[in-house]
Design goal:
The protein has 670 residues and is of the alpha+beta class. An eight-stranded mixed beta sheet has the order 6-5-9-3-2-12-15-14, with no helix packed on it. A hairpin with a 2-residue loop joins strand 7 and strand 8. Helix 9 runs parallel beside helix 11 and helix 10 packs across helix 14.
């Protein structure tokens, strides 16, 4: 087993690769690659150069035109070492390999009669000798040549600089990418495609050609994805002030791509499932996933490409931040409350179990053995939630200014989580170093809240506490900053305006950051017992123990102005009913009360039908299994089905009314 890679062992590269010139002679069996890498020493004195490489035959290796022999380098596991190369030189390597035999689908391979690449995380080293690490950024010029009949389309990162014919029925294309990028963002594709195009003009007036390359016959099914791309680009300009930077933006969709999609600079490669939508067969969920993934990969152009990673331990810096941007885009495009509920559902279904199991790990783990195991719900989903947490702690304005500073200061560089947090901290004018505990500690914090009313003092007091359970390798946890969004309801469901600690002006909603193990909040001007909601909008990725009973949750479902709080109250009531039913105890009165609460959500359906659909959806079986002390999946599934039937019967008139009011499918084409 390989030794673990540790973040504590990180060292900056001793050499830069300012430019890389690649010449691909593409053949399914026997592709030859000539790479000329312009290297520059960064170390103060002579230093070894470590190059990665595997899975190919080296035909030539030269420095400044002088061919190297075995005595000029040392072979090591997964690469070679040049002991003391010059301060500045050109490394030329000619390698040969069979893409058709590359069943790992990493690096350059053929599948479905096409050439395709997947270089994240460490695939480029299967193409040629290179410093295959994310903090070495180079500008690329790439020449591709192949048989024209088999591979009429030749694509690579950047802008097309030249193309033409070659003897023997072959042709070439030269692509130039003016923006420095690490090896993992390199991409090429070659084959037979149907191409659809659309013009786009950036906010500064630059024309961009948007192109989708799909299987022949699939062009029309890619029109929706093309429209999604246009909307994502325009939205990113308006919300994050990020403009696209090349003259062409390309998407390649192949059915045999082993990732969902990959954000390679200017040439995204997608699995066709996230590009193609046939109106005759595609569901709402299909359209939504296409919209989300198209947006996600485009948003990487800045959060991942223009600014990349110092090392793979910072993976959430690009993925968590980009998932956050994707969620914001989907919330703006569709329904913000519904998007938030879907985000929370995914978090609870995928990441909470990960955080609570034997594979729990921090968003930024201290070590790894295989980088491919790094792509987890914790890095992606929890990472996105942490960006939301940072925004709430810093405030919307400071967060926006901090992001703009980050985009400017780290453009063309390899960054760390500290760099992003530092920019937001500077904009906010406050110390946010404690926020980094979220990245370095595994586990889901448990937030405990208890409340009491003092009629004589006219106060409502909240006792807050946080604790994160032990996880493998981390038995003891420090408190993390947990942003809270707090509101109070009267017993009749009226929203109460209160003064926090008797100092602030009366407000219907209060913001507070719990960054210690315990805290006490006192709200003044409360004449009667009040019902608190402390985690409106799911303001932090925590488990909440608020001690509320059934009547209080029913009150929240009926009257809380926050959609998430209403939904969560309903989910908690449903969980209690289902766990009890699975254990053989059915409370008929509780079921009827719950059905009445669901009926009120159905009454709200005309305002946001998608939210009503989420509110009426019972917790999934997986969540019930998590919540049960001794889960019996068969009993839980049976209890869930029975409650679904009871609700369907009780809500039948309202459900039929909503269904009849919904627009029907378009008439068939003549």
């Amino acid at each position: 087993m390989a030794d673990p890679v540790r973040i504590a062992d990180y060292r900056p590269p001793d050499y830069a690769a300012d430019r890389i010139e690649l010449d691909f002679d593409l053949r399914p069996h026997g592709t030859r690659v000539t790479a000329r890498t312009h290297c520059r020493r960064l170390a103060a004195g002579p230093a070894p150069l470590h190059l990665h490489g595997e899975g190919f035959t080296t035909e030539r290796l030269l420095i400044d035109g002088r061919e190297l022999g075995p005595a000029d380098y040392t072979l090591v596991d997964g690469g070679l070492v040049l002991q003391a190369p010059p301060a500045q030189f050109v490394l030329e390597a000619t390698t040969r390999f069979d893409p058709a035999d590359n069943t790992a689908l990493s690096g350059l391979y053929t599948s479905g009669g096409r050439f395709c690449t997947q270089c994240e995380a460490e695939g480029f080293r299967r193409i040629t000798w290179a410093q295959d690490r994310p903090d070495v950024l180079a500008r690329y010029t790439v020449r591709l040549q192949a048989d024209r009949a088999q591979f009429p389309t030749l694509l690579c990162n950047g802008d097309l600089a030249a193309a033409g014919e070659l003897p023997g029925g072959r042709h070439f294309a030269t692509w130039v990418d003016p923006f420095p990028k690490p090896t993992y963002l390199f991409a090429l594709a070659a084959g037979r495609f149907e191409t659809i195009r659309a013009p786009f003009t950036t906010r500064s007036g630059r024309p961009v050609e948007l192109t989708f390359h799909v299987d022949p016959g699939d062009g029309e099914s890619a029109r929706f994805a093309l429209d999604c791309l246009v909307r994502a680009m325009r939205w990113d300009e308006q919300v994050f002030q990020r403009e696209y930077d090349l003259s062409v933006y390309q998407v390649v969709a192949v059915r045999d791509f082993n990732f969902g999609a990959m954000e390679n600079k200017g040439l995204n490669i997608f699995n066709s499932a996230y590009v193609l939508a046939d109106p005759r067969t595609a569901t709402d969920a299909d359209y939504e996933s296409i919209e989300a993934v198209i947006g996600h990969e485009y948003f990487h152009n800045w959060t991942g490409n223009r600014i990349t990673l110092r090392d793979w331990f910072q993976l959430s810096l690009k993925e968590g931040l980009t998932v956050y941007r994707e969620h914001e885009f989907m919330a703006a495009t569709r329904s913000a409350p519904v998007q938030r509920l879907k985000d929370v559902r995914r978090l609870r279904a995928r990441q909470f179990p990960e955080d609570g199991g034997p594979l729990a790990h921090p968003v930024r783990p201290p070590s790894y053995r295989a980088i491919d195991n790094f792509y987890t719900a914790t890095v992606y989903e929890k990472g996105a939630e942490l960006v939301r947490v940072l925004r709430q702690i810093a405030g919307d304005d400071a967060f926006a200014r901090g992001l703009q500073r980050y985009f400017v200061d780290f453009d063309g560089k390899a960054a760390t989580v500290e760099d992003l947090v530092g920019c937001v901290a500077a904009a906010a004018g406050r110390d946010l170093s404690g926020f980094l505990r979220w990245y370095d500690q595994a586990g889901t914090p448990v937030l405990t809240v208890r409340h009491r009313h003092d009629p004589a003092a006219r106060t409502c007091t909240l006792e807050l506490a946080q604790a994160t359970p032990p996880t493998p390798g981390q038995p003891h946890k420090l408190p993390v900053p947990i942003p809270l969004c707090i509101g109070l309801l009267s017993a009749s469901g009226t929203v109460l305006a209160a003064r926090l600690h008797g100092v602030e002006a009366p407000a219907a909603e209060h913001r507070f950051v719990l960054d210690t193990e315990r805290a006490t909040l006192v709200f003044h001007g409360i004449d009667a017992p009040a019902l608190p909601a402390v985690l409106r909008g799911c303001s932090a990725p925590v488990r909440l123990d608020d001690g509320l009973g059934r009547a209080e949750r029913l009150l929240q479902m009926a009257h809380d102005p926050d959609p998430y709080t209403r939904w969560d109250a309903g989910q908690r009531l449903a969980v209690d009913l289902l766990l009890a039913a699975a254990a053989g105890s059915v409370d008929e009165a509780a079921v009827l009360e719950f059905a009445g609460a669901m009926a009120r959500e159905l009454d709200r359906a005309p305002a946001d039908p998608a939210f009503a659909a989420q509110a009426l959806r019972l917790p999934e079986l997986g969540e019930l299994v998590q919540r049960a002390d001794a889960p019996d999946p068969e009993r839980l599934a049976s209890a869930r089905e029975q409650l679904r039937r009871r609700l369907a019967s009780a809500l039948r008139p309202g459900l039929l009314a909503v269904a009849s009011a919904a627009p029907g499918p378009p008439p068939p084409a003549a």
